[in-house]
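Hi all, posting the design record for the shared folder.

TITLE: backbone redesign
STEP: 1 of 1
STRUCTURE INPUT:
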């Protein structure tokens, strides 16, 4: 599939989470980072995009029903989005090879889950960006159902809403409120340009303290 490119998502993906976090902090949003336990399968991955939220729950259910509901989740996830899932579970896998390949084909940018993943080797081969908390072969069949879509979810101390933006890399995951996304992206780009000037000045011999005083950033 070839969805229209999300320009903010593309710009954010050229940034890094530390700079995005610093900008949010300076704008008064100090607690926008997800728990440090959520990590990319491949540490080299960077992921950014507009959030689509999902939450679910462990259950004792008919296996067919769990798979019908799960495939329904795959069908609902919008192209160019980053799906963020709060499964309310710490035992099962909430992403696998076939599901990841389906999302990739449908134009989803990536998947972040406060839970588990399996089939990591296969996912790595085709490069769908998954960030998760742990790995396990235990699947959801008969044991977990997606319950709500596009409703706010909480991961760690962060409330996440559909329409927010996210920027994630090996350092961590930062959530950007929807109404701040353009301004945060612009300011982050400015920060990175300033950091390049600071780096250049220091490598040319300027004292690091003088460089900080000149550029106001370090």
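Okay, here is what came back for every position:
SEQUENCE:
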């Amino acid at each position: 599939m070839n969805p229209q490119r999300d320009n903010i998502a593309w710009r954010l993906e050229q940034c890094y989470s530390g700079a995005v976090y610093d900008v949010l902090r300076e704008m008064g949003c100090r607690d926008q980072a997800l728990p440090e336990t959520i990590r990319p399968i491949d540490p080299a991955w960077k992921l950014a995009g507009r959030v689509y939220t999902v939450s679910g729950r462990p259950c004792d259910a008919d296996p067919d029903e769990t798979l019908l509901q799960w495939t329904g989740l795959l069908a609902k996830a919008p192209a160019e989005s980053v799906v963020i899932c709060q499964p309310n579970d710490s035992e099962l896998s909430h992403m696998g090879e076939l599901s990841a390949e389906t999302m990739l084909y449908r134009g989803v940018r990536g998947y972040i889950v406060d839970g588990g993943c399996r089939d990591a080797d296969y996912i790595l081969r085709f490069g769908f960006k998954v960030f998760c908390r742990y790995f396990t072969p235990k699947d959801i069949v008969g044991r977990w159902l997606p319950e709500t879509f596009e409703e706010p979810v909480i991961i760690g101390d962060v409330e996440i809403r559909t329409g927010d933006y996210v920027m994630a890399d090996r350092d961590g995951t930062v959530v950007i409120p929807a109404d701040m996304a353009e301004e945060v992206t612009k300011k982050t780009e400015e920060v990175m340009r300033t950091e390049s000037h600071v780096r250049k000045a220091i490598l040319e011999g300027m004292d690091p303290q003088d460089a900080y005083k000149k550029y106001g950033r370090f």
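COMMENT: The CA atoms of residues 63 and 142 lie 4 Å apart.
Let me know if anyone wants the other runs.
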